[in-house]
Amino acid sequence: MPAPRDAVSTPLLRFAPSPNGRLHLGHAYSALLNDATARRLGGRCLLRIEDIDPVRSRLELIAAIEDDLGWLGLAYERPVRRQSEHMSVYRAALDPLIARGLAYPCFCSRGTIQARVAQTRAEGAAIACDPDGAPLYPGSCRILSGEEAAALRAQGAPHTWRLDMACALDEAPGPYAFRCFEPDGSETDVPADPSRWGDVVIARRDVPTSYHLSVVLDDDAQGISHVVRGADLLAATDLHVLLQRLLGLRSPAYHHHRLIMAEDGEKLAKSRGSETLGDLRAGGINAAEIRAKLGF
């Protein structure tokens, strides 16, 4: 069953973009839906900037995000939480997981992993994939002895930290589920299967966290009671409920909304160069037209 949420007098939501590109219509839909849901529930919606990526996150993009949201007619409380200012919090959560034997250092580069997967396929063996379609990590570094891993770290070898899924599930056995809520306020329990993510990265090479780790810590720290986010993150919730249980965190209720698609049927994405709100604004479209187009 889902971990219980503390009673809250006011429902609290958050819109949490990453400043690695300009907002597009998909972001606008999510921001407007969060705002509308908060109003319907009689609650509040916060803005959070998820800027753990030290390379792609830029100050000018944070300013652009806030400008686009203001143009849409959305206003948020200050100060706005920025993940880059809370690395010590993430480190403090990661270290106990390591000490409990629930996370291990992984020295494999992306290229090394891809080569091993390709070799396995060439040998005719089946490759298990995570819900996003990426091959599961084969566990190459999980079998390193403590001495071997320590020696590599002492040499300064770059490494991520991976959750040892088997050990995590042994320490916090299921069943797992999370609460999903609908626009009418009704809630249902949805079964979750964290194991399908395998030994997922919970801390990057350059920062002591990952999206998965920081998002559950931030939601708990900010007292988020309801999470409204895209359907592309539905499967990730399986992993998040496991991390919440391991870390003793509260579990919000979730609503995973439809995605806004491009004309070619693909999901809008910064990486695909999707048309941004800035592009639309420059083309003469006003905020009222955008809100109407998205159903608000």
Automatic annotation (TrEMBL):
Gene3D superfamilies: HUPs. Residues 14-273 form the Glutamyl/glutaminyl-tRNA synthetase class Ib catalytic domain. The keyword Metal-binding applies. InterPro entries: aa-tRNA-synth_I_CS (IPR001412), Glu/Gln-tRNA-synth (IPR000924), Glu/Gln-tRNA-synth_Ib_cat-dom (IPR020058), GluQ/Sye (IPR049940), Rossmann-like_a/b/a_fold (IPR014729). Keywords: Aminoacyl-tRNA synthetase, ATP-binding, Ligase, Metal-binding, Nucleotide-binding, Protein biosynthesis, Zinc. Pfam families: tRNA-synt_1c. The keyword Methyltransferase does not apply. Belongs to the class-I aminoacyl-tRNA synthetase family. NCBIfam families: PRK05710.1-4 (NF004315). This is tRNA glutamyl-Q(34) synthetase GluQRS. It comes from Methylobacterium brachythecii.
